[in-house]
Design goal:
Strands 2-1-12-11-5-10-9-8 form an eight-stranded mixed β-sheet, with helices on both faces. A four-stranded antiparallel β-sheet has the order 4-3-6-7. 34% of the residues lie in helices and 25% in strands. The protein is built from eight helices and twelve strands. With 297 residues, it is of the alpha/beta class.
């Protein structure tokens, strides 16, 4: 099911077959990429299974969707529905048991150099300073030590950590460590950015600030983003489109286009009546899946 939410007036929904893209209705200019933009990510009839103590377990099945270049896509769904599995397939960390995954026009058969991945937990090396952690992926991509450190300094300044170049991860707060992780990933300008609940461990105030920072940084080069979250407000505030997944085995239940003006200030946006209308419309579909997932436990 694909749903379009037009915000020129009251929220409206038009439903098309699963796998088709939502079409933009009448409403404000959302600042999103034109529909003529090239496809950056395409999943077609994807199924992924795992082996467990009780035999084979199907994490996701019959999953098909596309994301265009420069599009910000968020994915929500009940716990255990396979949201993170989508990211491992797109990144090339795992392969589908059925169907195809394409990134930037090529079928995924391994790790993609043009894909950045920000995990839920910090992936910083504890024996390296903030500067050295940000410079490391640049060195792996062939930059000289001097070039890598200059770029690392530039990105640390962009995320507000210029004074903490020489600090080690244990000397930084959770929000600061997350900023280092974001700087390290964006420094090599990936064309596709995957984010697996990156702000879930942060307090509410820091989380909101980080979401705003992310949107500002994303706006520099506009990579295609697939962002996993359990927070529906976060999903709507960040996204051009929100994908809703069913309870396990995960399928695409809904594809919602969010026609909210960019740039966005998330600290204020969540009180906007149009934002609230979108949240209510998506929750009407998501709620039943959350309850079904709970009953499966």
């Amino acid at each position: 099911m694909s749903v379009n939410l037009s915000l020129g007036g009251p929220a409206q929904a038009s439903v098309t077959e699963q796998g088709e893209r939502a079409t933009t209705g009448q409403g404000q200019d959302s600042g999103k990429p034109a529909t003529s933009a090239a496809i950056a990510i395409r999943l077609t009839n994807v199924k992924r299974m795992f082996s467990g103590a009780r035999g084979k377990f199907t994490a996701i099945e019959n999953v098909s969707f596309e994301a265009r270049q420069g599009e910000f896509l968020t994915v929500v769904g009940p716990s255990g529905c396979g949201k993170s599995t989508l990211l491992t397939l797109i990144s090339g960390l795992s392969q589908p048991d059925q169907g195809t995954v394409e990134v930037l026009g090529k079928q995924v058969n391994g790790i993609q150099k043009d894909v950045g991945f920000i995990f839920q937990r910090d992936a910083l090396l504890p024996w390296r300073t903030a500067l050295q952690n940000v410079a490391l992926p640049l060195r792996f991509r062939g930059k000289s030590k001097h070039e890598a450190e200059e770029l690392a300094r530039s990105w640390l300044a962009r995320v507000g950590l210029k004074r903490f170049e020489a600090s080690y991860p244990h000397q930084l707060s959770g929000g600061m460590r997350k900023r280092v992780s974001i700087a390290a990933t964006l420094s090599y300008e990936p064309r596709v950015l995957l984010m697996d609940e990156p702000f879930s461990a942060l307090d509410v105030e820091t989380r909101t600030l980080m979401e705003n920072d992310l949107l500002h940084l994303w706006d520099v080069n506009k990579p295609t983003v697939v962002f996993i979250t359990h927070d529906l407000q976060e999903a709507i505030g960040l996204a051009d489109r929100v994908l809703v997944m069913t309870a396990s085995p995960g399928r695409i239940l809904g594809d919602y286009r969010v026609d909210l003006m960019r740039p966005r200030e998330l600290t204020e946006l969540r009180f906007d009546e149009k934002f609230v209308a979108i949240q209510h419309s998506i929750w009407e579909h998501l709620r039943a899946e959350v309850l079904r997932a709970y009953e499966q436990q």
